[in-house]
Every structure is written in structure tokens, then in C-alpha cells.
Request: fold
Amino acid sequence: MQSFFFGWYFKCQSDTQTLAIIPAVHKSGLKRSCSIQVITKNQSWNVDFPASTFHYADGDICIAKNRFGKNGIFLAVHTPELHIDGKLRFGHMHPLRYDIMGPFSILPFLECRHSVQSMWHSVYGRVHINEQEYLFQNAFGYWEGDQGNSFPKEYAWTQCGFQGGSLMLSVADVPIAGNHFRGIIGVVLWQGKEYRLATYLGARAAELQDGKIRIVQGQLELEARILEAVKNPLKAPTQGNMTRTIHESAACRAFYKFRKGENTFFEFETDRASFEYELKQRVSPS
Reply:
């Protein structure tokens, strides 16, 4: 394989603080490296490591002294710009019933494949970032991942944990066999029940513009809208090279609404939404 990337996204969210950490390994041609990106509400950092410091052992992702997995995270990063020390313990994971990619999981040559390891789990522990403490006691945790060779050219993604549930939604341009289509994958975990919205289940984007996403699938309708973004730069892969800059709001103000027919399951505003809105042009409804 000439180029590839594997990245894992760990989000920890308390009532007052949000911390997201992305360990990744990437290869472009003969160049191979790994990295750890750290995102808080108002800042982001990227730290590169030699490829030799990466290994995968017993289900854990390891980069130098840093370890990430189902049991938690151990962090020890020290550069002139960034000092991080801490340990977080995870509770019981809540994975999906089946692969978020559905039948697309067996298609070869997709530029990016998404995965969801846990829609929510409890988080305990503390992390110090440049002398600021991030404390998590029975806090919300979420874990997803991506792999392939490039991030989608255009996409929108959001994730939020809230009382009674958790949600994730992604809408992306998907190139395949010389054509393009708008791929949708999303899950709402609400009061113990999993609701899935996806292209392979008939989902379509009824609205996708100006920071708003509205997905319709039969009687199900999920709306997500950015109200106030706090965008921090992140590195993303293009043919395995971490040369693209995207922007994420790890904890921003947003609106969500989920309903089935006339029954509205929830409708709320929050200041703890995570959002990436990498759409370069106005997209008309499907």
C-alpha cells in the first residue's frame, strides 16, 4: 500500500470541559510517521513522532509513552509548546450493533472508512495540559476512527453526548469508480435504543448548507445546526500525507432535533457539541 492513514478519535466531555485526542499513523510513499493531536474548546496542538514509536498491542494504540484503548488513556507528551501528563480510565463501552459502514464495509478502494468503537462510556481521571487541569469524574466518553488514504474532499461531521443519549452524524462526498455520491452515516443512541440513519438505509440530505444538516430517512428526521463555532485547526490526510488543514469546534454551541413522524424524541441547544463543517460551497437539497 503506497499511502494510508489510521486515526482514532477519543472525546472526553464533562459539564464544563471538553478534551479530544487523536492518535494516528500515516504513510505516503516511503515516508511513514505518526502523530498525536489534542483539541480543547479554544486550542489545538499537533505533535509528530517517528514511525518507530508506534505499535499496536493487545488492542491498544501506543505512540512513544502514550497509550490509548478500551481501558483508558495514558498521556506523556513534552515539547517546547506542549506539556501533557495524565491518566484517564474508561468504563463499559457501548459499541454499535453492527459496522457503521453497513454493506459499504466490504467495498474495496474507498478513500475513507469510518468506525465507531463506543457511542458512550464513562470517563474518570485528570489530565494536565500546559499546567491547566482537565478533570473528569463520571464524565462522557466517545471513541471513533477513520482509515484509508484521504479524508473526503467535502464533508460535515458532528458528535454530541447529552442527557439520555449520544449522537454522531457524518455527510461526505464519496468518490468511487469515477463517480461521486453523497454518503450519510449517523447514529442516535437515545434512552438505550439505537437509531441508525445511513445511505444504505435510504437516508437523504434534505438540507445541507450554512452550518445546518437535516437528514430524512422514512419517518426519521435528524437536524443538527451550528449556532456558534470555535474553530481550531487540525491536520488531515491527503494520500497519506498530513498536509491538509481542517477545522474542528470541539465544544461549540449547536442545536439538535430528532423525531419520528409527529413524535419528537428530543430538541435542545448545547454548548458542548463537536462540529466539523468542511463544505466549500452551497449544496442544494437531494
